[in-house]
Every structure is written in structure tokens, then in C-alpha cells.
Specification:
The chain is α+β, with helices and mostly antiparallel strands. 43% of the residues lie in helices and 18% in strands. Bound molecules: zinc ion. The site of zinc ion (ZN) has 8 residues, from loops.
């Protein structure tokens, strides 16, 4: 199973100009290729839209297309050919997905025909798949980007890649700067973990309640930054569109959004790593995020918590470290079940913060009660796994064992 390592880049001003130019070159090639496909379709000619055909067309026509309009000099050779291949790949994917959807072979959200990429609205991105890109032998804090140079990073990439072969490196600009994402051939080897089982109940006020009694509060990064973001958005609305100061405010705004994202991700990375390092079997619930977001009073709080992202982190980390992740069925009554005697309530309102059992009189914090139930689920899954002895399922099947009825939300929150 491939995995990825994301690092923040620290380019020099010259390198940053080259990054912007590469992303621009990719966008230019994409638009040229799309215009070519559209012209063919208008002329009722069946267009060749595989990645190879598109790349070939670009290589034939780049000498006339990628030319400076004022000087007449060609500029295509100033940038890595990987930028143009990336454009061809993006367009080929877009056309493939559109045609699959049109013929009823693809489910989920509607996929439209690819659109031209506008300079101001497109995310700056390109990727390397061949050539001498990736980690640098004598500098662990840098990555090599052909035609751009050896770019310093904010962390030790060599250590994180852990000697695994790098298949692809995509480069893109996010709100607070440039990032490189290295796709690795396989997961770097995980750490040995302790034994036992644990349950984790996810919530809004407390992000997670662990069955051993630990409570992880929700940092609510968006709620905290909401006033600041609102102020910047109003400021942006008053400014002359696309002026220098408009761009400045927009940068501040993007940095604010990036900050909220980082605070959330930091907490989730720490929690998921802690869980897979300490327990052999982890039980969590399958939250119907899309359904919950429809509750307008809770929508923002739920999106601020990003449960789906947490599950994604936990899934890949448990695969890497051989941990058994049990995702409870969406209809598993983790909150309504008594963790002492096992009786199930028919109704439990959200305002009742303490679980009181009518059968055995047991009383416990609502979230902790749910977490203990999930821990028991994780335990029974582990026991049935061990009971089968040699017949242990491959780890890749483990996270979805309990979730036959699960449907993936089509968007991540
Ligand atoms: Zn009870």
C-alpha cells in the first residue's frame, strides 16, 4: 500500500519564482490541451485523450504554443518537462472521469466536462514522476526538484522517507507556503505496539474520550479564528479587486485558514499516533458525517472537528503498525448500551450527559460509557481474530471488518 510524506518547503526567492513558473507552465499546457480536445470535438473528430496521446500532441506543438508573445522566443525548455506531463495527466484523468460518469460507469457526485484553468483561481501545482527528483544524499533537510534546484525543507525528509523508494513527488502551494508530497512505494516500517484493547468515542466538546478515562479536548481552531477570519473577509470585500492590497489581505486570510487546519491536524496526528502505539485493538464508531452536517445548529462544530480526517489518519497508521482497527457499524448503539450489564436504551437525548441504567442502576459519564462499549467491541473482534489462529485475515481488511453497511461520505470535513 503506498503512503505519502508531506513536507513544507523553504525556497529561496529565486526558487519560489521557479515554482510559480512551473505551476504556470503546467496550467498553460493544460489549457492548450483542453482547447485542442474541444476543437476536435467541435469538428466531430474523435479526440485522442489518453495521457500519452495528449503528451505527444504537446511535444509536437509546444514550439509554436509556448512562445513569448512579445519577443517570439520559445520558453518551454526553461521548465521541467514533468510540468507538461503533469498537465497531460490531469486532463486525461478529468476527461476519463467525465466520460465514465456520462456513461453511468461512475457513481457519486456529478462530474462535469473539464474547464479551463483560470490564473487567479487555480491552485498552483505540478508533479515529478521521472528523473532525479526526491531526497538528496548529503542533505537530509532538502529535496531535489529538477530545474528548480535543491530546495531546503523545514524538517528531516530523509528520516521520514526511511529509505523507501519515492514514486512521485507533487508540489503545490497552500495558504501558508509551498509543500512537497512524496508518494512512497510502501509504508515505512511501523513501531512495535503494546497489547490490549481500547475504545474511542468522538464528540464535539471533547474531541475524544478514551475508554481508560483520558479526555482529549477539541481545540476548536475555526471557532477561535472565526472573528479574525470574518474581519479579514469584510476587509477584502471593501478593497479593489486584484489590487496589491487585495492580494495582501488575501494572503493573510489564507494564512489564517492554514493555521486552523494545522492546529486541527496536529492534535489528530498526536492522538492517532498515541493510540496505535499503545493498543493492539482500537474501536471507534462510524459517524454519519454528511447526515450530521445537515443539522444546521451543529454543522459548523462538526466540520471544525473533522472526524473523517481523523479516521483516515487512524486507518493508515493502524495498517502501518499492525494494529487492529474496528469501526463499529453506523447503527451500533455505543451510547445507548450500558457498559456494565449490556442492556440497551431505546431513547437517549443529546442533553443527557450522564448515562443512568434502569436495569442495574449503573451511572457513568455518557462519553466514557460509549468508549467502554467500543473497547469491548474491539476486544471481541481481537478475540475472534486470535481464535481463528492461523486464519488471521490480512491487515488490509481489518479496518472495515465491522462496517458492512458503511457508506463513504463523498466529501471530507
Ligand atoms: Zn446496566
Amino acid at each position: 500500500m503506498p503512503s505519502a510524506v508531506l513536507v513544507k518547503l523553504d525556497p529561496t526567492p529565486r526558487q519560489e519564482r521557479m515554482l510559480v513558473a512551473h505551476a504556470g507552465a503546467a496550467r498553460f499546457a493544460y489549457n492548450c490541451l483542453l482547447a485542442h480536445v474541444k476543437a476536435d470535438m467541435d469538428a466531430r473528430v474523435k479526440p485522442e485523450w489518453s495521457m500519452y496521446a495528449l503528451r505527444k500532441w504537446w511535444n509536437v506543438n509546444k514550439r509554436t504554443l509556448a512562445v513569448n508573445a512579445d519577443t517570439g522566443l520559445p520558453w518551454w525548455q526553461e521548465y521541467s518537462k514533468e510540468a507538461y506531463s503533469y498537465a497531460a495527466q490531469c486532463l486525461a484523468n478529468g476527461l476519463f472521469n467525465w466520460s465514465q460518469f456520462r456513461h453511468g460507469k461512475r457513481y457519486g457526485r456529478r462530474v462535469g466536462f473539464p474547464a479551463f484553468k483560470c490564473k487567479n483561481k487555480t491552485r498552483m501545482a505540478f508533479a515529478y514522476t521521472t528523473g532525479s527528483f526526491g531526497i538528496v544524499a548529503d542533505n537530509p533537510h532538502a529535496v531535489r526538484l529538477p530545474k528548480v534546484g535543491v530546495v531546503h525543507c523545514f524538517e528531516n525528509v530523509t528520516k521520514r522517507v526511511h529509505g523507501v523508494h519515492v514514486l512521485r513527488m507533487s508540489v503545490n502551494k497552500q495558504g501558508d507556503g509551498w509543500y512537497a508530497s512524496l508518494t512512497l512505494d510502501k509504508q515505512p516500517a511501523g513501531v512495535a505496539h503494546a497489547h490490549g484493547n481500547v475504545g474511542v468515542d468522538l464528540g464535539i466538546k471533547q474531541f475524544a474520550t478514551i475508554s481508560d478515562g483520558t479526555v482529549i479536548p477539541n481545540p476548536h481552531p475555526y471557532r477561535t479564528a472565526k472573528r479574525k477570519i470574518g474581519r479579514l473577509q469584510r476587509k477584502l470585500g471593501r478593497q479593489q479587486y486584484d489590487s496589491h492590497r487585495y492580494q495582501q489581505t488575501k494572503q493573510h486570510l489564507n494564512a489564517q485558514y492554514a493555521r486552523t487546519r494545522h492546529i486541527r491536524l496536529d492534535m489528530q496526528h498526536k492522538l492517532s499516533t498515541y493510540l496505535v502505539r499503545h493498543w493492539q485493538s482500537i474501536g471507534i464508531e462510524d459517524l454519519n458525517v454528511q447526515g450530521m452536517v445537515k443539522n444546521r445548529r451543529l454543522a459548523q462544530a462538526i466540520q471544525d472537528a473533522a472526524f473523517y480526517q481523523f479516521r483516515t489518519l487512524l486507518t493508515y497508521k493502524s495498517l502501518a503498525s499492525n494494529t487492529n482497527l474496528v469501526i463499529a457499524d453506523r447503527f451500533y448503539p455505543s451510547s445507548k448500551t450500558c457498559s456494565q450489564c449490556g442492556s440497551v436504551k431505546t431513547k437517549l437525548s443529546l442533553t443527557q450527559r450522564t448515562y443512568k441504567c434502569e436495569h442495574c442502576g449503573f451511572e457513568l459519564d455518557r462519553d466514557l460509557n460509549a468508549a467502554i462499549n467500543l473497547a469491548q467491541l474491539a476486544k471481541s473482534a481481537l478475540e475472534s481474530l486470535n481464535a481463528r489462529g492461523a486464519d488471521i485475515r490480512p491487515v488490509s481488511n481489518a479496518p472495515y471488518r465491522q462496517s458492512a453497511m458503511k457508506r463513504e461520505p463523498s466529501s471530507k470535513h
